[in-house]
Design brief:
The structure is a single chain. Among the domains are: 80 residues; 155 residues, Orthogonal Bundle (hpI Integrase, Chain A). The protein is 54% helix and 3% strand. It contains 17 helices and 3 strands. Helix 4 crosses helix 6 and helix 8 crosses helix 12. It has a 3-stranded antiparallel sheet with strand order 1-2-3. With 374 residues, it is an all-alpha fold. A hairpin with an 8-residue loop joins strand 2 and strand 3.
């Protein structure tokens, strides 16, 4: 019996060593899992379930359709949902990196992850886990940060006022004074502005929710100067509808101002930089810009160096004696006076020679006090 036990233990050790040397050995020995129930093709699921669903609510529906047609379906459309592997995703990323920017690849990965989340939520047959979950996104590193100076704003304002587009002289200052997104401003109505409470209500922001922007005195002056021809504040005079685009007039004005590299969205960045550099907190900037997460506003944190230097210098005014001699508490003796008395007493005492035995005793006492074996 003992011999049989020894043989079994030896076999177990041998199998463990083989598995350690070859990690695939265990998979080869282990029984194969039962095949998963057949799941629909990814292309079928997208066409029959995903697209009809997002059409009802998603504002970026057309963007999703573009990503699906150009990336997802050509690469993964012929696979069943349960057949997708991590290797397939890695192959897709490596293939697309040669021809596309990291931001495009990341949007495809995020879209795929959402598709699988919906498949799990709807209990699609054969789908037991999200195969895209955990796939790391690529580092984009292409976020442009362009902030206008006061002098550049002056040049830009002059050029938009002489533009052939009569509304550009209202649109550009409106963007600078509010920090609003382009479409938020272009689709604003007069009923959205409450001049009594000085609040501009944006019914539909990027997050899909309404947000509120304070109406500054300068913005109120600007709004009062705009002729009211229809319900839209910044309407196209020819159609009395919001502009679909004002790029050509904007491009002409920025080039005349010598600001060829400035985009319309940079006016929003500049609004934030003006606030931060004038001492406003990131929390205030977050609320005004409508950022749902503070990390989005953190990009403007480095602009506040002058304010931060002023803030740390406040400690000198708050505690002016931090580098001085300090003030003696009343319950403590005057240490300085005691030191002077000891020094004067020591100067009056006659010096005497210290014998070697006395020095040895002092050294031993110091060593014992320090815990050192002598």
């Amino acid at each position: 019996m003992r011999e049989l036990i020894k043989q079994r233990r030896a076999a177990q050790v041998k199998t463990a060593l083989a598995t350690f040397a070859n990690p695939m050995a265990e998979a080869l020995v282990a029984p194969l899992p039962e095949p998963a129930a057949s799941s629909p093709l990814l292309a079928t699921f997208v066409r029959e379930a995903y697209l009809p669903f997002i059409r009802t609510y998603k504002r970026s529906y057309s963007c999703d359709v573009s990503l699906l047609n150009n990336h997802v379906l050509p690469f993964f459309g012929g696979k069943h949902l349960h057949e997708l592997t991590k290797s397939d995703l890695v192959d897709f990323i490596n293939t697309r990196r040669a021809t596309h920017k990291p931001g495009t690849i990341n949007r495809v990965i995020i879209l795929m992850r959402y598709i699988y989340n919906l498949a799990l939520k709807w209990e699609t047959p054969g789908v037991q886990k999200n195969h895209v979950s955990g796939t790391p996104l690529l580092e984009e590193g292409n976020k442009k940060e362009r902030f206008l100076t006061s002098e550049e704003v002056d040049r830009l304002v002059y050029c938009v006022k002489i533009s052939r587009n009569p509304m550009l002289k209202y649109i550009v200052p409106g963007l600078i004074l509010t920090g609003a997104r382009k479409q938020e401003l272009l689709k604003s109505r007069w009923v959205d502005f409450d001049f009594d409470t000085k609040i501009w209500r944006i019914p539909m922001s990027k997050s899909g929710k309404a947000r509120h922007v304070p109406i500054s005195d300068s913005l109120e002056l600007l709004l009062n100067s705009i002729p009211k021809t229809c319900e839209w504040v910044f309407a196209n005079p020819k159609t009395l509808k919001p502009f679909t685009s004002f790029f050509y007039s904007w491009d002409t004005a920025r080039c005349q101002a010598g600001l060829d590299d400035v985009r319309v969205h940079d006016l929003r960045h500049s609004f934030a930089s003006f606030l931060v550099n004038n001492g406003r907190s990131l929390y205030e900037v977050q609320r005004i810009l409508g950022h749902t997460q503070i990390k989005t506003t953190q990009r403007y944190a480095h602009l506040d160096q002058s304010s931060l230097l002023s803030a740390v210098n406040e400690i000198t005014r708050a505690a002016p004696n931090v580098l001085g001699e300090g003030s003696r508490p009343q319950h403590l003796p005057d240490i300085t006076k005691a030191q002077v008395l000891r020094a004067s007493k020591a100067s009056r005492e006659p010096t005497r020679k210290v014998c070697p035995h006395e020095l040895e005793i002092i050294a031993r006492a110091e060593a014992l006090r320090a815990g050192i074996a002598f």
